[in-house]
Design goal:
The protein is α+β, with helices and mostly antiparallel strands. It has helices spanning 20-23, 31-38, 52-67, 91-99, 115-128, 152-155, 209-212, 233-255, 272-282, 293-296, 303-313, 349-384; strands at residues 3-12, 16-19, 42-45, 76-80, 105-109, 134-142, 160-170, 175-183, 191-193, 229-231, 264-267, 322-329, 333-340, 394-397, 403-407, 411-412. Bound molecules: oxa(dethia)-CoA.
C-alpha cells in the first residue's frame, strides 16, 4: 500500500512589515482594536518586485531542501492562490520553470483560503494512486494587491506570504490519511473579488447570463469595486467558526480518532476569535490549536503551510503526532485533512548544493528556450510573412511572474 508523507516544508514572508500602528495612520483604526478583535499584530507586505510566483518559488526551494530532493524528482506542482500574476500561464508553471522541474505537471488551484488543503488532498491522492512519487503543494497569495486601503473592514485583516510542502510516496503507514473537500457556492456573495476584466465583456452571451450576474449585494447593500475584496465580516465569522469545529469533528471521525486523540489542529488563520470559538465548541484546550496570526495576519492559501513551518520550528510537531489541518474561505469552500506527522529529516548538503546548481541551470535553460523560440519564430515568419509589421508586440511573463514586454524595435522593456 502507498502512503503520502509530508517530508519537506518551507515558507516565505516578504521583508517589509506593516505594524497595526502604521496601518492606523492610513485608516481609522487602532492597534488595540485590531489585536482584540482579530489577534493580528502585524503583516508582511510584498515589495514591487515580489510576485505570486517569486514568493511561491522561494518557499518551494526551502521545502525541497528540507525534503532532501531535487526539483527533477517532482511529478506535480499545485499552487493554491487567489492572486495569480496572470490569468494564464498559471503561477505553478512559472514555479516549474524557475525550479527546473522538468518532469512535473503544474496547475493553479482556485479555492481561496482552502486552496492549500484542497491541493494537498489532490496531490496525496495522486501519490496514493501511484501516478507520481513526489508532489510540491504551495499556497501563495499577495492579498495586499486586492485590498482597498481605505476600507478598514478588510485592509487590517490580510497579509502576503507563501508556504510549501513536499509530499513523498512511501510504504510506511502514516502521512496524509484522509481528507474532505467541500463547497457551498450559494455563499459566494459573502466574500468575493470581481474580476477587473469582466466589465470589458462586449460579446452578448445570453446562455451565460446567470453565471455573469454579479454577486448580490450583501449586508449594507454594497457591491465591491472590481479588483477589491468585499467581505460580509460577521457572516464569514459565523461560517468560519461553524466550519472549523464541524470539519474537525468530521475528519477526526473519518480517521478513526476521538477528539481527545488529536495532538494539534492547524486551522486557517483568519481571526483568533474564530479559532477560540472552534476550540470551545470542540471542548478542546486552546493549546491544541496552532495560532500564529499575530505575525502574518490572514495570508489566505498560505496560512496553513506557513503555520506548518512555524509549528515544526517551535517544536509543536513531533513524530507520530495526530494532526488536523482545516481551512475555510471564499466560494464558500472548506477543507480538512488528518495526518500522522512523520519523522524528522536530516538535511543533506549535497542535495542543497545540487538544488542551487539546478536553479542556476533552470534560469539559463529558461532564457535559452525563450531565445530559441524567438529565433524560430523570426525564421518562420520570414518565410511565411516576408513583409513584417513594423512592431509586433509580445507580452508575457518571465520566470518570476514579472511581465516582460518585447517589441521587435525595442527589445526587452
Ligand atoms: O479568510 C476568511 C476571510 N475572513 C474572515 O474570516 C474574517 C471573518 N470576520 C471577522 O474576522 C470579523 O467579523 C471582523 C474582524 C471583520 C470584524 O470584527 P467584528 O467584531 O465582527 O466587528 P463588527 O463588524 O461587528 O464591527 C464592530 C465595530 C463597528 O463599529 P460600530 O458600527 O459598532 O460603531 C465597525 O465599524 O467595529 C468597527 N470596525 C472597526 N473599528 C476599528 C470595523 N473594523 C474596524 C477597524 N478598526 N479596523
Amino acid at each position: 500500500m502507498r502512503y503520502a508523507h509530508i517530508v519537506g516544508w518551507g515558507k516565505y514572508a516578504p521583508e517589509r512589515v506593516m505594524t497595526n500602528d502604521e496601518l492606523a495612520t492610513l485608516v481609522d483604526t487602532t492597534d488595540t482594536w485590531i489585536r482584540e478583535r482579530t489577534g493580528i499584530g502585524q503583516r508582511h507586505l510584498a515589495g514591487p518586485k515580489d510576485t505570486c510566483a517569486s514568493i511561491a518559488t522561494a518557499a518551494a526551494i526551502e521545502a525541497l531542501d528540507v525534503a532532501n530532493i531535487t526539483a527533477a524528482q517532482i511529478g506535480l506542482i499545485i499552487v493554491g492562490t487567489s492572486t495569480p500574476d496572470f490569468a494564464f500561464p498559471s503561477t505553478a508553471c512559472l514555479v516549474q520553470d524557475a525550479l527546473g522541474a522538468d518532469t512535473a505537471g503544474a496547475f493553479d488551484l482556485s479555492a481561496a483560503c482552502s486552496g492549500f488543503v484542497y491541493g494537498l488532498s489532490m496531490a496525496a491522492d495522486a501519490i496514493k494512486a501511484g501516478s507520481i512519487d513526489y508532489a510540491l503543494v504551495i499556497g501563495s497569495d499577495i492579498m495586499s494587491r486586492l485590498l482597498d486601503w481605505k476600507d478598514r473592514n478588510t485592509c487590517v485583516l490580510f497579509g502576503d506570504g507563501a508556504g510549501a510542502v513536499v509530499l513523498q510516496a512511501s510504504d510506511q503507514p502514516g502521512g496524509l490519511l484522509t481528507s474532505l473537500l467541500r463547497a457551498d457556492g450559494s455563499g459566494g456573495d459573502m466574500l468575493y473579488v470581481r474580476n477587473n476584466y469582466r466589465d470589458k465583456a462586449v460579446v452578448s452571451t445570453p446562455h451565460l447570463s446567470t453565471a455573469l450576474t454579479p454577486p448580490a449585494a450583501t449586508g449594507d447593500g454594497k457591491v465591491s469595486d472590481a479588483g477589491y475584496i468585499f467581505m460580509n465580516g460577521r457572516e464569514v465569522f459565523r461560517f468560519g467558526s461553524r466550519i472549523l469545529a464541524g470539519a474537525t469533528r468530521e475528519i477526526a471521525a473519518r480517521a478513526g480518532w476521538e477528539l481527545g486523540d488529536i495532538d494539534l489542529i492547524i486551522p486557517h488563520q483568519a481571526n483568533n476569535r474564530i479559532i477560540e470559538s472552534a476550540a470551545k465548541s470542540l471542548a478542546l484546550p486552546l493549546e491544541k490549536m496552532f495560532i500564529n496570526i499575530e505575525h502574518y495576519a490572514n495570508t489566505s492559501a498560505a496560512t496553513i503551510p506557513i503555520a506548518i513551518c512555524d509549528a515544526v520550528n517551535n517544536g509543536r510537531l513531533r513524530p507520530n503526532d495526530k494532526v488536523i489541518l482545516v481551512g475555510f474561505g471564499a466560494g464558500l469552500t472548506w477543507a480538512a485533512a488528518a495526518l500522522q506527522w512523520g519523522t524528522p529529516r536530516v538535511l543533506s548538503r549535497t542535495n542543497r548544493t545540487l538544488n542551487r546548481v539546478r536553479l542556476g541551470l533552470a534560469n539559463v535553460r529558461s532564457r535559452a528556450r525563450r531565445v530559441f523560440r524567438r529565433l524560430e519564430d523570426s525564421l518562420s515568419s520570414n518565410v511565411d510573412h516576408p513583409v513584417k509589421s513594423p512592431v509586433s508586440p509580445a507580452s508575457g511573463p518571465d520566470r518570476s511572474g514579472t511581465a516582460v514586454v518585447e517589441t521587435e524595435r525595442e527589445g526587452k522593456v
